[in-house]
Amino acid sequence: MRPSLPAVLTLALLAATSATANKVFVSNERSNTVTVIDSDTWEVIGEFDAGNRPRGITMAPDGSRLYVCASDDDLVRVFDPGTYEELYSLPSGPDPELFVLHPSGNPLYIANEDDNLVTVVDTETHKVIAEVPVGVEPEGMAISPDGLTIINTSETTNMAHFINDQTFKIEHNVLVDQRPRYAVFSPDSSRLYVSAEIGGTVSVIDLTGPEPKLIGKISFEIPGVLPEWIQPVGMQMTSDGRNLFVALGPANRVARIDPESNEVTDYMIVGQRVWQLDLTPDERFLITTNGNSNDVTVIDVDKLKPIRSIQVGQQPWGVVVAPD
Fold first, then answer.
1. The pLDDT value given to residue 111
2. pLDDT (0 to 100) of residue 2
3. What DSSP string runs through 285-318?
4. Does residue 219 belong to any structural domain of this protein?
5. How far is CA 208 from CA 104, 194, 241, 286, 320, in A?
6. In the chain, which residues have pLDDT < 70?
7. Is position 27 within any domain?
8. Cα separation of 265 and 246, whole Å?
9. Which one of 100, 130, 231, 289 is most buried, counting C-beta atoms within 10 A?
10. Is 209 exposed, middle or buried (0-12, 13-18, 19+ CB in 10 A)?
């Protein structure tokens, strides 16, 4: 199901990647489009229809396919990221919101908010190969770097579910704070971080023992900002494991956490209701989607400083940057 890439495809993959390199794709929940930004010039270079209420967005590891959760269409739409042509759609349950691809590019794991299932879809045959019952209102999806463990977070059950990649069975459940939104692994798979929108925290889960263990929660305090406005949602971690970035929703800030100490070191002001994040391949820049100001913010990672605001469509939700 997950064969290694044949050598005969190498040139084709290089061509596909070169056609999409330096592109940032932003899903616009209300305008039903995806905006395309050039990450060299930070100029908008395109926009295309993406179905009804596009939210989660990701790309094949080789840059050959762009996947978009069309939540109100109850399916995943698949586009050519070079031409923006819709190629086909993939099945999902009702109201798909977030998803994650296996590191090999197959399969795709989809959180379906309305039926309490994670749907597993083969990206080559376009068939559903498993449905995993999880908690109420599944939202966040993550996969360990080795591809063996899938995480789903359920908003109402307030749990992180650990799903085996071979059996598609839940092996562990860990209780976290209210309304968990997003999950991210450390690069060495030793820890899992789960953001809780209503709880206002990021839970830290240790994965080095026989079972996952909650070892702490990271809180946020911003002078002049009411605690109820601080709502952790999207997260990204740099590949060296030294920076964990957390979008704080209506607080209009992105927090930088030092994963070694689990301390918040910086807050960066961005647009209104910051939602999701992605890093450029060289990790020099972090891009945020700001749903209420209809823009994205570009942050210089080394300087921890916003450097650009770019207008996109209505209610930008998700963002993915094409691989090099």
1. 96
2. 43
3. EEEEEETTTTEEEEEETTTTEEEEEEE-SSSEEE
4. yes
5. 24, 17, 16, 29, 30
6. 1-19
7. yes
8. 12
9. 289
10. exposed
**What are the DSSP calls for 193-225, one per residue?**
EEEETTTTEEEEEE-SSSS-EEEEEEE---TTS
| DSSP category for residue 249 | B
Q: Is 1 within the bounds of a domain? A: no
Nearest to 160 by CA among 221, 211, 122: 211
On whether the CB atoms of residues 150 and 141 are closer than 8 A, the answer is: yes
Q: Is residue 15 part of a domain?
A: yes
Tens digits of residue pLDDT in 267-307? 999 999 999 999 999 999 999 999 999 999 999 999 999 99
- Residue 198 corresponds to which tokens in the numbers above? 């209503």
CATH number of the CATH domain containing 200: 2.130.10.10
- Domains of the chain: total: 1
- Find out whether 183 and 216 touch, Cβ atoms under 8 Å: no
pLDDT of 15 reads: 44
Measured in degrees and rounded to the nearest 5, phi and psi for residue 292 equal -95, -15
